[in-house]
Amino acid sequence: MLRRSCLLLACLALGAAALTEPGTRSLAENPGSAPSLKETTAHRSPVDVALSPDGRWLVTANETSDSISLIDTVSETVVDELSCPGEPAGLAFCLDGHSIAVSCTNSGNIDVVQIQDGRLVHQLKIHVGYEPVGLAVSPDGNIAYAGLVATGEVAEIDLRAAKVTRTFEVGRWPRYLTVSPDGSRLAVGCSGESRIAVVETKTGEVAYKELLIGGINIGHLQCSSDGTEVYFPWMVYRSNPITIDNIQRGWVLASRIARVRLDGPQYREAISLDVPRKAVADPHGIAMTSDEHRLVVSASGTHELLVYRKPDLPFEGVGGPGDLIDRRLMADKDLFDRIDVGGRPMGIEIATDDRKVYVANYTRNSIQVVDIEWKQILNEIPLGEAPELTLARRGMELFHDGQKSLDQWYSCHTCHYNGGVNSKTMDTMNDGTELTMKTVLPLEKPSQTGPWTWHGWQDDLTDAMQASFTNTMQGRRVSNDDARAVIAYLDSIDLPPNPFRNSDGSLTAAAERGRKIFESSATGCAECHTGSRFTDGKIHDVGLGSAEDAYTGYNTPTLIGCYRKVNYLHDGRATTLEDVLTGDHAPEKVMGERPLTQQELADLVAYLKSL
């Protein structure tokens, strides 16, 4: 998304490095073949930052420039930038401490880059699957683990052999993960099923899962030094009507920090983050000082760092925490304080002095150096010259801004993660009724999928966007220019390459058979799901309504990217595509002529996943 033409040239220069088979080495014979991008003018949009073990170097993952940057922590300047195609997302130092692994979501690769004499040099690429985001590295630096969001797996990568040694299923949407100090256990945040999966690295088996009731958008994970606990921020959704009173009580969306045991199953403990009238939106990054005296969290939706005195935090288990922040935290600035850093703070790292925090600030295109004891920004390191702010870039900032909602409780991104969906059915009151829960619709390319809302009553996209700010978020009306900016941002989002197609983008044999079934009168799917976005833009009564609905019939949803969802149909009654096609929305109950055979069902699912 938001790519500039100058980046395309840089990416084309890497064409010779493309992989042909998963797990193969591609750049080892010519490790310096990737071009420097130090002079490129583009929004960098850093999402993650990693500090070398000796504290000398910082590396940033720059999402929208397809690059990584190297920062000298002594001079606090950018000394190199390297092309890293495929939307870099996660970073972890590995091997000898002078190499870094980079997860590239759209390419499905892990790039390994070495720091040599103050420069970044590509060493190898390893294809691991789709879509890698979070990374964790074993204590010896030789094994990396990558969460594969598209397939619900973790890939284990032998970095010395440059290959994937195994993959294991952990649960839906495993975005971020961390490994225990002894390397024996892996904690994985599975946002698609509101759970933390604890994996035995020796066997690759899930030892147990801890449920986060109502949990969405699990952020980065941080393991305690003794390996017994893992800490992480997340948000919780409660199925209450969106009213001013419910929002301010924390009964709609709220932010938390939790800890889960790694040495055996035990219900999570947590604290609430939200301050009355000034809540915390979209907590994301987390870090602890080496002595575990300070715990720091980035609140990306409210543009701040949250700084805690960890040993005295009032974590609560069953029955807790309360809906709002514990009052003890409000009475002690050393126990809890907020530092306004502006922009969209994402990944964070604590310096070796246990005082400075390095913040990857997405919208400011910078790394900020923040003193968590003095509570001030010491320096801001620009990652390069940023271009003029476009309409879409402005819309991106608005979309992720929790301060546009009532008392800054949540942003558009909170429900539509990165413009897509989340794992809950929600009551937005958008259809004029309370507690008629609806699955969250994806917002990629909305201009091509009108009318809008599940019932399709909204036929003006700008008005629909305004309603999101004033009704769903209970905030102030934005200007029409701002509403159009958000639409421009959403229209700019491109989904990653589909993992259920052949490597050249063509349909598999099963999907090709499924396409014919999809288009046949046996199913009637193509009667409604037509055109490039697989929606006819019409309202249909397919027998799934309820007496509580204010409207009759449902707007045909797009099928593009439907493999990314974890619940289906308007009320989420189906959790897999197989459920959709064999339950209340089975073809023979809607438009088709007969039930599908098992082979036809499998082929049709293969086709739907390929869209």
Q: Care to describe what's here?
A:
By secondary structure, this protein is of the alpha+beta class. Among the domains are: 170-237 and 252-336, YVTN repeat-like/Quinoprotein amine dehydrogenase (Methylamine Dehydrogenase, Chain H, 7 Propeller), CATH 2.130.10; 391-492, Orthogonal Bundle (Cytochrome Bc1 Complex, Chain D, domain 2), CATH 1.10.760; 509-609, Cytochrome c-like domain (Cytochrome Bc1 Complex, Chain D, domain 2). It starts with a helix and ends with a helix. The strands form nine sheets. Strands 17, 18, 19, 20 and 21 form a five-stranded antiparallel sheet that branches. It has a four-stranded antiparallel sheet with strand order 1-2-3-4, with no helix packed on it. A hairpin with a 4-residue loop joins strand 14 (185-190) and strand 15 (195-200). The chain is built from eleven helices and 33 strands.
Set down the secondary structure blueprint:
Layout: H1 5-12, E1 46-51, E2 57-62, E3 67-72, E4 77-83, E5 88-94, E6 99-104, E7 109-116, E8 119-127, E9 132-137, E10 143-148, E11 153-158, E12 163-169, E13 174-179, E14 185-190, E15 195-200, E16 205-211, E17 215-216, E18 222-223, E19 229-237, H2 244-248, E20 253-261, E21 269-272, E22 283-288, E23 294-299, E24 304-309, H3 327-330, E25 336-340, E26 345-350, E27 356-361, E28 366-371, E29 376-382, H4 391-399, H5 412-415, E30 425-426, E31 438-439, H6 461-472, H7 480-492, H8 509-518, E32 539-540, E33 554-555, H9 577-582, H10 587-590, H11 598-609
